[in-house]
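Quarterly update from the structural biology core.
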Amino acid sequence: MREREKIVTAAVRDYINAWHAIGLVQQRRDTDIDDLKRRIEDVTAHAEQEIAGHEQAQAAAASTIQDQGHTDTEIAELLEISTKRARQLISASRQTETTKLVRAQPDIASGQPNPLAGNGSEDAALLPEVGRTSGSHPGSEEKDDSDTLRSRTTEK
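Predicted structure, tokenized:
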């Protein structure tokens, strides 16, 4: 009988040890997942900033082409995008230029830089997100982005 109690006690101890080990593994898993989620958020934010910069460059390029006398339709053909997208880029470029001019103007009362100026990162919000499909040229979609554009410009 004494031998049976030792066996049962050892089995219970093994069970409890495994239970504690499972808890530690679950904690480590949850911590690792939280770390990965934070990393994903960081990578996503960095990518969005980088993309915004490239979208501003696209808008500036479209505006430069327009400054050389090309129509919206010609710009769209040159860039292999929809006319709608060409207009969005040109509009975004104009708004960015206006924002830069406002920032350059000092606050008349204090002579200090314009307090409404911000840091420039919101300029990319002027460009609507364009759905991209694999194998298609970026910006060639005819998707209606007016709601996206409207919501992004009103977020400010």
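The radius of gyration is 28 Å.
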